[in-house]
Amino acid sequence: MSINIQPGELRDEIATAILSVRPQDEEVPRIREQLLNQKYEATSELIVECFYRCLVTDDLQRRYGIGLDDLPSCVNSSHVPPRRVCGVGSPHTHGTISLLLWKWAWKQMQKQHPEVDNGSPVQRGSEALRHADLYVVAQEQVVSVEFKYVGVAGVRNAKAVAAQMQRYVEKHAATLLVIYSGTEAGSEVQGMARLRKWLDPAVPVVLLHGDAIAPAKKPR
């Protein structure tokens, strides 16, 4: 399954959809509760990822008429917690797709598009796989989306984030970096200037300002 649109155009559509929405007061607790019910720690970044992955999935389903059976084959990632979390108030039902189908489709995506697996050097010279937060297949090519949450301290690891995104630039047809800052609109985000300096020009950045999102520890 592949969406019939140029990867760069799809990436821009995803960016536009993300820019248009911020989590509402009732949506963050809903996502947090769903994560905790699945025994996952609800970090601020994971909540942001769940919300916007749900938003993007809903938008793509509506825009391109993607059925539930086909969805995991073209909109998926290695991240398990967001697969069945629905935070956007709409009638879409991707949260009803079985975890087995999500897992099977992800394995198929890895086989058909090995570029979703990014080798990253780790200790002792071995290789570990690193994945973007979301992959969408457009005209048999991969579009990757990465979500980051930053608080008042801003982007602390700008060089590492730039290096991460560079791997996606080299292997994917298009990529997008989404940064949610839990600060007021118009306020300066520390570290953004350094990040933009190191980022490849091929990486568009969606910078969102919104309410700070409190995390919740995994229940024992």
Topology:
Blueprint: H1 7-19, H2 27-37, H3 44-64, H4 71-74, E1 75-76, H5 99-112, E2 118-121, E3 127-130, E4 134-138, E5 141-150, H6 158-171, E6 174-181, H7 192-198, E7 205-209
Features:
globular; 7 helices; 220 residues; 5-stranded mixed beta sheet; two-stranded antiparallel ribbon; alpha/beta
Report strand order across the widest sheet: 1-4-5-6-7
* Share of helix, binned: 25-40%
Total domain count: 1
The total of helices stands at 7
Structural class: alpha/beta
Shape: globular
Task: Let me know the number of strands.
Answer: 7
Major sheet: 5 strands, mixed
Average pLDDT across residues?
90
Relative strand content:
15-25%
Q: How does this model look, in words?
A:
The chain is of the alpha/beta class and 220 residues long. The chain has one domain. 38% of the residues lie in helices and 17% in strands. It is built from seven helices and seven strands, in the order H-H-H-H-E-H-E-E-E-E-H-E-H-E. The strands form two sheets. A five-stranded mixed sheet has the order 1-4-5-6-7, with helices on both faces. Strands 2-3 form a two-stranded antiparallel ribbon. The longest helix has 21 residues, at 44-64. Residues 121-127 have low confidence and may be disordered.
